[in-house]
Amino acid sequence: MKKALLAGSALVGVGLATSPASAADGIKLAIGGFFKEAYMVTLDDDGEGDLGNERNTDGFFNDAEVHFTGSTVLDNGLEVGARIELEGENDNDQIDEAWIYFSGGFGEVRIGSDDEALANACIVPPGGTGNFSAFSPNQWGANTVTSNTVCTGVDDSGDAQKIIYITPSFAGFQLTVSYTPNGGDQNHTDVAGPHVGMPVNNDGESRHNLSAYGTYSF
């Protein structure tokens, strides 16, 4: 009973503290996303030991996501919002990213499952797109043994739970900084959601990851 009373008092205290910054217009919801389809043909050597061995010559490939977003502006001018990305096809990670953000004159702060600074703000050379590219493609039309992406971050799981800060743009300069306590913990099954105690340190898993990426737009 004593614990329940203390918890109730804490909730009341939070409610009183946030009530002056309430939103007059409520939450605005939106649904978006994308669908990308690719047909590719790869012609290479297919002898024993070659990269094309036991591989088909052509194929269809797709990538799709449904995005749920919501935001509101509090009476004090602070914008508060959330974003959840649902994979559009069968995937081991059905929820791609899920995070909340706080935005204002100070910049933007994100907390949740999202890419870290390098992968989030990465700029590819001219001609690179999210679908086809020689730099960071969604679909890479070659039978290579490794990825050639230039925007892979430092975390074991790209969408591990983290906090991200994005500065305002100062004369075209902008800095993105992120901190990830556990590089492989992305969701509740990784013990990154509601739990008792801290996540388990797995052998070989990165921890306390810091990432920073600066951009300049002219």
Task: Summarize the structure in words.
The chain is mostly beta strands. It has one domain. It is built from 2 helices and 8 strands; from the N terminus they run αβββββαβββ. It has helices spanning 2-18, 117-121; strands spanning 28-41, 58-73, 79-87, 95-104, 107-113, 161-166, 173-182, 207-216. It has an 8-stranded antiparallel β-sheet. A hairpin with a 5-residue loop joins strand 2 (58-73) and strand 3 (79-87). The model is unreliable at 1-19 (pLDDT under 50).
Number of strands: 8
Strand content: 35-45%
Characterize the overall form. Answer: globular
User: SSE order, as H and E?
Assistant: HEEEEEHEEE
Radius of gyration: 22 Å
Uncertain stretches of 5 or more adjacent residues: 1-19
User: Structural class given helices, strands, pairing?
Assistant: mainly beta
Roughly how much helix do the residues carry, as a percent range?
10-25%
Number of domains: 1
Tally the helices: what do you get? 2
Mean of the pLDDT scores?
80
Largest sheet: 8 strands, antiparallel
Tell me the span between the first and last alpha carbons.
61 Å
Strand order of the largest sheet: 1-2-3-4-5-6-7-8
Task: Put the structure in a nutshell.
The chain has helices spanning 2-18, 117-121; strands at residues 28-41, 58-73, 79-87, 95-104, 107-113, 161-166, 173-182, 207-216.
Keywords summarizing the entry:
218 residues; mainly beta; eight-stranded antiparallel β-sheet; 8 strands; 38% strand; disordered N terminus
